[in-house]
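Summary for the funding panel

The consortium committed to producing paired sequence-structure records for every protein in the target list. Below we show the first two records in order, beginning with the earlier of the two.
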Amino acid sequence: MTAEQPTGTAPARTKRIVAIDMLRGAALVAMASYHFTWDLEFFGYAHAGLTAFGPWKIYARCIASTFLFLVGVSLVLAHADGIRWNGFGKRLGMIVAAALAITAATRLATPDSFIFFGILHQIALASVLGLAFLRLPALLTLAAAALVVAAPHYLRSEFFDHPALWWVGLSSADPRSNDYVPLFPWFGAVLAGMGVTQLARSSGLLTRLAALPQPGWTRPLAFAGRHSLAVYLVHQPVLIAGVWLFAQFMPPQSRPPQEGFADACRASCAETRDGAFCTRYCGCMLGRLQGEGLLEKLYKGSGDGAFQQTVRDLAATCTAETDGAMEGGQIP
């Protein structure tokens, strides 16, 4: 990553900004820690729903936001003085190919929750859309970032519920996927990175960052940051293979679907409601799912759109019943 200082008609190239490589490398380490925890949950060593809700969910969003912010930083550093189409096209082609490979691999491995628009898909699309903001004032770019982040709170519609439009991120309910990073709100992080870098560039901050010395202990992070795509593609297969190998010798303790559902349900419910409500609500959901023979299907993550709608209807019914019972003073 290099800083560019415009001088006359040709930009002067300065030293690579190692701090940016280090930040990207640190984000890769954080991502690996999250994926390792996800792998433990997937194989049954951790409770169901651990990484999907609460602190781990926030952790995952911070990691994704950091990567996308750095995409915006890179766009400005590389192309602010003129788009380098050869380098841009080569990098974009690599990202698109990697994204398609991940879609194909996860479609085979986890067909009910495969990655159809994950972070690499977002990076590819954002890299193209971001070019339109390279010549705009920084404050306008930051304002656009805020609007993109806020859009899902105001513009969700059933119009976007068709699978062909899930990549937009404005459907009435998020589709099931192991990594879902749609255009809205995540493109906002890229625009934020662009706006901040435009301000840093005009103030001379980038030149000062490029002049900072690199401590020896940061070199592994910087190396990973310079080869982030390769590290991203390799680390999860290595981690999941390691957990699988461990499971062959020390398999996790099996748990009935009822316990797994109850854990995930309470973790999800606790994000918006109190413990008393969640205990009663999850008991209602468990009873109805078992009564209709749907629990195993839900636990395995299978089912089409009609099945997902049935589950949402059951959730709405249990929510209404739980609210009514608690308003009436009934103890869960």
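The next record, for a separate protein in the list, is shown here:
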Amino acid sequence: MKRAIREHWKDFAAIVVLLVLTVGVAGYILTNERLSIPFITPSQYTLNADFQTAQAVTPGQGQSVRISGVQVGLISAVSLKNGEGVVKMSIDKKYQGLIRQNWTALIRPRTGLDDMFIELSPGIGNSPEAKSGYTIPVSNTMPVVNLDEILSSLDADSREYLDLLVNGAGQGLKSGGGDQLAQVMERFEPTHRDLARLNGAVAQRGTDLRQLVSSLKRLNVALAAKQPQIVQLIDSSEKVFNAFASEGSNVSRAVADLPGTLSQTTATLAKVQAFAQELGPAATNLLPAAGPIKGANQALTALAVPGAPIVKNQIRPFVVASRPVVRNLRPAAVNLAAATPNLSNVFTVLNHFVNMVGYNPGNTEHGYLWWLAWLDHNARTLFSVQDANGDFRPLFLQASCATMAQLANSSPLTEVLMNLTPVLTSAGLCPTQAAADKSAYAKYQQQHPATATAQSNSATSGISALSPHAGSGPAGTKSNLFLPKLPTGTN
């Protein structure tokens, strides 16, 4: 065999090349026919879709699955489940994260020979990703609708009316009616645009209604699953509302107090606004002072670092050592605190006494300090022995004119009268009553000339007649002759 290959190697090489070309062409054809070849065909994942009818859907005939006109997979199988057609789709692996659970699947003919394909369209809103094996529900799918199905859905009268309409339209379009219809349709172009927008809005409304129905279904399912929690929520709400009802009076009172609270809040906010207006300039003025704070902190740090050992090694041991002494001082401090009120009262009384002694009423009167000095002066004069009077103590007596007049009126001694008369009749000593005393004494000398010169006779029996104050009234009575009004002050 080797010898034959060596002899016919050209023929053998041509056969090998032809075989390789054959395999290549076959692989290309099979690949474009979406035949799955292990280790060559890209990996796929499967999706299912439930349809009311899966007519004309034939697996293995290259019927494709498309998204926006782009082929993303093939129809791989069709089965029946619960009276609905289940179409199995093999989707390329690279489109796995694109398809969502709210997408719709529509069966559409690619040609007039019912060469079907499935069109996948995105849904509205966000939805989870459709994993491998997910089944699109029949609510999101729509099969192809044939013309005979449309006609069969009509009753007999509707079919006859439709027949008349189609025949009438055919007769109307003959002999140039098409051009006229085209002109009419052209004139109705704005109407068509408005109708297109209306149809789009209606379609969008239908999509929204489907989404709403689907959401309501999920909501109802969730509510059915959470029935105990809903019952508990209703019971709790009832308790809360009962509590609110029981607090109705308090709520009314709070509502009644609310206007006053709001008024007070308004006034407070006005004051806060005034405070803020003052605070703004004050803060602005504080900005220059805030700048040196960094330097002050650094200076404080420079002071605190060397001062920390002093506090730690000197002040703290001193405080620890002084604690026993402070504890011993506690009873003394307590006793001092108890005695402090009495001491305060004593010093208060002493302060009042010193103030009273040092008080000077004015020019007409003298205070206690003046009289104390006067008493000291008289005491020194009384006990002084520095003069020629020997052991006699000089005495200085002071009396007012009224006092001397009283002594003259009440004294039985003529010497007292004669010694006091010059004083009482002197205008320099007693200016207030000197004239009256002098006139009375002169009258007395005229009435008693013999007794006026008897100054040394101390043994007189009619002393009341010798007194210048004696009158001529009834016997045994006295009258002040030259002392009609005695002065109260000191002359």
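Regarding this second record: Residues 454-491 have pLDDT under 50 and may be disordered. Residues 208-248 form one domain.
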